Amino acid sequence: MSSLSAIQRRRNNAAALAFIAPNLLGFMAFVAAPTIASLVISFFDYALVGTPRFIGFANYSRLLFEDPLFMKVLGNTLYYVASYVVINVVIAIGLAVWLTARTGFASFFRAVFFVPVIIPTVAVALIFRLLYLPEIGLINVALSSLGLSSIRWLSDPTFAMPAIIIMSVWMGFGYNLVIFIAGLKGIPDSLTEAATIDGAGAWKTFWRIKLPLLSPYVFFATVMTVIFSFQVFDQTYIMTGGGPINSTNTLVLYMYQQGFEFFRMGYASAIAWVLFALVFVTTLIQSRMQGRWVTYDI
Questions:
Q1: pLDDT for 88-144, tens place per residue?
Q2: Domain range holding 95?
Q3: Which of 29, 80, 169, 218 has its CA 20 to 30 A from that of 248?
Q4: Which one-letter DSSP state was computed for residue 49?
């Protein structure tokens, strides 16, 4: 009897391995191997042609202490991440509360707000480039109709990054909106009804009941939004190319420029691992701080 059960276990293990083998092989070939290769390359002076030359930590030393443009790019990225995450989450929470309080057309508005999420970034960026045109762009036409001066959104270093942030928020807040709507629908009606009976208004009910119970969803959305925003590339590459005067250059775009325009693959790999460390530390800090404001009790 025991031998039969052992044979059955081996068969089950073999079947399970056969099912996971395609995904496992794909992960090893397209994720694990390139990741390890990029780490190794980051210690070399490698220009795609010729023989790689081992230089140790020279790429990292140059990146952190000798490259002033990297610090500007890092500042741009942090500015984008902080602005985008805050605006995205605040708008998504506000609209989620509004939609859950509505009875009519809520599904329609939910679909309308989510549609930009599934539109390709390239298409959105090209449309917004037209909207941001200095004289004939729809946004500047609207400003002129209000008696305001037109703005050179993508050619002025002061407004280029805010213009990209506005486009990114329009394109991305719908994802978090759906998450927050699901969280608000999970809050028992008895709690909000009890608060209403006690005389609490809508604003106090939101701050004292809805927002604390929504905090696990806010935590998840914030962590995921931070991770994705650190990887911003398409918007800056298509709309400004990192300009003007590198005011919209970001870490991923800078990594692309170093690797595929200047063929400094070792330096680009070092940038990639610095970005990984930055995202890892930021996520770790968020995870450690969640105990102070996230509640999982109803």
A1: 999 999 999 998 887 678 888 888 999 999 999 999 999 999 999 988 889 999 988
A2: 60-293
A3: 218
A4: E
